[in-house]
Design goal:
mainly beta; 4-stranded mixed β-sheet; single chain; 1 helix; 3-stranded antiparallel β-sheet
Length: 85
C-alpha cells in the first residue's frame, strides 16, 4: 500500500504502525516484525518516503509519503522504531 496525507494516515506507537487509506482496511505492522525503516527524500515533491521493511519482506510494499518528515521521523525514533539517522 502506498499512501500519502491527506489520503492516508500513519498511526503508530511502540508496538504497532498502521497505514490506513480512508475507509479502506489498513496495513498493520507489528514492531517486532519490522527490521528496518528506509527513508527516501523526493526533492521534486518535497516529500519523504517512509518504507517499512519486514523480516520476511511482507511489508516491503508499505510506503507512507509525508511532507512532515521533520515531525514524523523523530516521533518514530522516540517510540523505538528502527529509523536511520
Amino acid at each position: 500500500m502506498h499512501g500519502s496525507w491527506p489520503f492516508a494516515q500513519l498511526w503508530f506507537d511502540r508496538d504497532c504502525a498502521v497505514i490506513r487509506m480512508g475507509p479502506f482496511a489498513g496495513v498493520a505492522m507489528p514492531r517486532w516484525r519490522v527490521v528496518d525503516i528506509e527513508l527516501e527524500r523526493v526533492p521534486l515533491s518535497r516529500s519523504t518516503q517512509i518504507r517499512f521493511v519486514g523480516s520476511s519482506g511482507e511489508f516491503d510494499a508499505s510506503v507512507f509519503w509525508t511532507s512532515e518528515a521533520p515531525t514524523v521521523v523523530p516521533a518514530l525514533r522516540a517510540w523505538g522504531w528502527p529509523v536511520p539517522d
